[in-house]
């Protein structure tokens, strides 16, 4: 734009647009000299209006913190250290820390240090001294869970060798009688959050669960009426003092279906929980979980190897020792690093089954743990990070599917609010329940994204959840992400965004839910995680007030 001035007979000036002699869309006619101040002000205002219109046209909508991803950088080791006070406490309650993680993720070299803060192992306001005390206590609690696993595994092996059913039940009961109650109290205190804060008041145990959650899974292994006293005992015999886990467990050679998390089974294949004796649950269900855990652990993919050099180069001797410690067999076809990885999966997943017997183990949980143990090298630290992760994700593995159905409902509502045309098309196909994204919900995009992309998405999601746990509300977060509040369900917005990105294809070419399901499954390796987060955030900005708050 060119502003030109020329003398005129009446002493005024004229403003016009330049370029090829043509005039621009506005022009100021000659005026008296006394009006020049007003004229200048008008010219500046016109320029401002033009700039605003240009900005609106080019931008079009409120941008998220992930916009222009290439300009963002991950949280570096230097920045991480600068966030702490001299006594090891995060400055400003962790707001700046969470903002940085949300905008660019975390440098791989410091993930082991940062993740415990994101996953609630350490409070954002804790000092370094307090964290050291917590670390020691958490390690003892994890070791106690492992002792319980060894005792239950030994009991299971004894029963499998021909011990009578009655004797097995009596032996299971003796686990409770031999309990060290001081240790038991520590275990109970470690799980208080599951029994009070994290469990939804409207999600009660059902005497008639709807169906097995995952195809190929033996639903009879799940129970909610497990004898807690039997599972939370610490062995009082010489076994409890063993340092390495050397007790062998029989590994099942039973065949299983390939992992298939695409859609749930809709038949009711599990028995009523009231049909099982409590002590049978303690023994038989744990034995079932053990078999399934081992099969899934051995089948775990090797995508993590490039991201964990120290574990990728583990010796064969160490790998086999780790496998023997947890009774892992049938691994001869695996290289040492994968044997070691599988053994760690078994140890931590068994401990989690003892920690949270209501959920125990279900297919898909190994997908969630695998990236964690690839990053966190100490088992006890990886275990508590996984516990923090499962505070939210555990609802995905309930037999009654209440958690899954609630999340699918939220995805459906997001799509309905954002794109009514697409939603009407889904209704015509009887796919408005969004069961075609079932796998995405269960394993949190683990199958649709690469290993590094999965971690990036999870870190941003964890940062949101950490903000909510810390009570960081909208006022504080207005400095972090414009006018969008932190949300427990960023994942669901991301899932809805991935579907909306395919809206044209779905509307124009697909005429059944099966076709949409195949399209969603084919997204694997073809998604841009930062574009996905950008779109998800924009949905949060515009729809969070309309979407019903999910349960926690």
UniProtKB/TrEMBL annotation:
Q: Where is the composition biased (Acidic residues)?
A: 236-245
Q: Which Pfam families is this protein grouped with?
A: RabGAP-TBC
Region entry Disordered, spans:
154-281
- Where does this protein have compositionally biased stretches of type Low complexity? 181-193
- What GO molecular function terms would the record report? GTPase activator activity
Under SUPFAM superfamilies, the record lists: Ypt/Rab-GAP domain of gyp1p
Source species, domain of life: Eukaryota
Check the record and name the InterPro entries matching this protein. Rab-GAP-TBC_dom, Rab-GAP_TBC_sf
Domain (Rab-GAP TBC): give its ranges: 105-465
Q: Where is the composition biased (Polar residues)?
A: 220-233
The portions of this protein that span the membrane are none
Which residue stretches does the UniProt record annotate as biased composition, category Basic and acidic residues?
155-169
Looking up PANTHER family in the UniProt record yields:
GTPASE ACTIVATOR PROTEIN OF RAB-LIKE SMALL GTPASES-LIKE PROTEIN, TBC1 DOMAIN FAMILY MEMBER GTPASE-ACTIVATING PROTEIN
Q: Could you tell me what this protein is called?
A: Rab-GAP TBC domain-containing protein
Q: Which organism is it from?
A: Populus trichocarpa (Western balsam poplar)
